[in-house]
Amino acid sequence: MFLPPRSGARRRLPRPGKHGICQKSLKGPVKMKKMWLRGAEDSPDLYAAFRGSFCSDTERELPFAVSGCSWYRVFVNGTELTEGPDRYDDAHPVYKEVSCRVRQGENIIFAVVHSVGIPTRILKNTAPFFACESPGLSIEWSCTRLDAYARKVRRINPELGWMECRTIKELPPDAAWERPDFLEKDPYGAFCRDSARAVSQVELAAVPIGRGFLMQRFGYEYDDIPAAFYLRSLEPPDRTDRQGVWFRFDLRKICLFRFEAEITAPAGTVFEIGYAEALTDGRVAPYITLSAGPSCNLDRYILKEGRQTFGNLTPRGGRYAEIHILGDPEAVTLHSCRFWQRTYFPLITGSFSCGDKQLDKIWKTGAVTLQSCAEDAITDNPTRERGEWTGDAVSAPMDLIAAAFGDFSLIRRALKHSADCAGPDGCVAGLSPGGGLCVSSYALQWVSACKRYFTYTGDDAFYREAYPAALKNMAYFREHYTSGIGLDREIHWLFIDWGYVTNDGPGDLAALLLLCGALDAMSEWSRWMSDPEREKDFSVWREDAAGVIRRYLSELQYDFGRIGLHRTALSYGAGLIPPEHRQAALQSIKEHYLNCFPNRKDAPRLSSPSENCPQLITPYFSHFVFPLLFEAGEGAFVIEQYKKCWGWMLTQEDGTWLEVFDPRWSHCHEWSGCPTWQLSVYVLGLRRRFDIETNCFAYSAADTGIRDAEGAIPAEGGTVRLRLREGKFLSISSDVDITVIHGARRIRIPAGGERILLTESLEEVSNETI
Fold first, then answer.
1. Which fold has domain 351-684?
2. Is 204-343 a domain of CATH 3.40.50.2020?
3. The CA-based dihedral angle spanning residues 254, 260, 262, 265, taken in that order and rounded to the nearest 10 degrees
4. Kindly report the CA angle at 56 between 52 and 57, in degrees rounded to 5?
5. How far apart (Å, rounded) are the C-alpha atoms in residues 287 and 563?
6. Domains 204-343 and 686-765 are alike in CATH topology
7. 686-765 domain in CATH 2.60.420?
8. What is the tens place of the pLDDT at every residue in 393-437?
9. 555 alpha-carbon distance from chain centroid
10. Tell me, which fold does domain 35-196 have in CATH?
11. Kind and range of the H or E element at 358?
12. pTM score of the predicted model
């Protein structure tokens, strides 16, 4: 009942609509009947089971509205229906809409709910509840506390919830079940339908990579659980020292996953499973780096007698899983251990190949990394915190989705959460709904990202609804702006990049450059909203900010070495470097990259978040820098940087991207995947313009030195296939009607049709010409 579907197949999902919304609707907001255990006031790390029964006069498909806090899994007649958590702030509750086929006669709904009961990066400390309803259906509910779970044993780390510490036993007897409390004083109001489809469970092809006997070497049973795990001897010196057995598995990539173990063992046998992104001296160390406090990436189970199957309710992050079974080695048999990835993107629908195996692998690694960092949100990392940072979602991941997946529902959700969780001063949140942290740079990027999201999806409803939040957000920055001087340094936390070194003076120039980008986006947004007064106001403000930047550049005599990479690149992108200095700016950017690790092995390393040094580059900021180089004719340089820098990362972690160019950080971070979308856009040559019309693409190819390549990009309802030949000819075919625009040219390509175009002019040619 706690386990993924045993078939290993992905859970059947509701059909997504244009932006991932389920087509079969419960018709808007639903007043949910929330319930919880009677008298359960102390909620941290508390597990409960809910059982609902209902009768149906016929076999039929039924829609269900489900919500809960925090983690939950719901089954109907033994088949998994959906799972939580649901990410939202208290003022904007949502429900999942899912449907399943029910049988004639009695049907049983079963749910396990875990109240985390403390603030995490996923959710704030929200009061526990569970709700599951279907229109016109009378469900009889009962519930019970699951005392098989020991409470508050250890936190995973300060950003996440609790380790599981569970005794495997049968559910409580019927006498222990009672009617739940229905929470009448509802602080939430009506629940709105979630805009994204259900998360998928995909079985992983895990590989056993080690096994043996073990011996205890540390402390009492609960002294320090992760230390005891890591300090056990996995090579006992003598047969008489064997106190158990161990097994190690490689999941072949870092991801968020659950396990299911089938084992025969005596009652009281202890089963511990630790998780890690990388092996430490050849074994799993169940600790999480950069957690800002103690960590314990491990779960513990006390087994019952005989053959049994069990798994974890809450998924964990890592690549390696190591099982320690404490008990008589002769009496224990591990029959199997299976693993399921939790991901929003079960399939990569885009593709890219150019005959260079390294570049092809770099493209795929970016897509796989985003798969691992996408669950019910685009997350920072599947292991350390799983927070929904605005800057993570709106940097490389939005463009990665355009290149490899095509479903922007999680981007929409991230942008909405950021607006919903804005501070009292109007600044949209940089970390939401858990954390509630404002980040000035992310708030400015949020404005530009809303415009980009609209460009990629044509979701005019969101664009219209988000406008008031954008105005309040900009009003916050207006309060911190002085004409002729710029933004002050009293704004919320400013994150430009890891290792970034600010400039002297009253305000940070990189922040002011991000403000220019936001003001450009707001001017266009106001024009689209038919708001000419604000359009003019934002344009005037932008010119004032641009004047401050021009003066700064002039005072430093366009010495781009002193100006620094970040301010140079952002100034170039904003069009604020005079034509006579633009080539020098590009040259400075290229020289900066070549002077940094991993191009120079003796250059400074970004070994920790506290390292601030002007001689650094990062995968994150390359998302913003490389398009400038592509569009300035320096594509071959960028391709070489992919091979050198991202090629180096492939030697450190084979499967997902490091967070920075140093293995002491996270080994799985989606913002490092800019080569994936850039290869698709600048080599294959098409970029979404769904704001013009659905399945409209702008021609965007650049000279990269790659002469032959092929691949696919997602479209609405299908896929567009592209093939570049000899650097001169581009073949475009699609299984849906599409439009390609280039300047004033509009090329219609019907479903099933093909066009062969000259790359320089997009003039159509025949196969015979090639």
1. Glycosyltransferase (1.50.10)
2. no
3. 90
4. 160
5. 40
6. no
7. yes
8. 999 999 999 999 999 999 999 999 999 999 999 999 999 998 889
9. 41
10. Jelly Rolls (2.60.120)
11. helix 357-372
12. 0.95
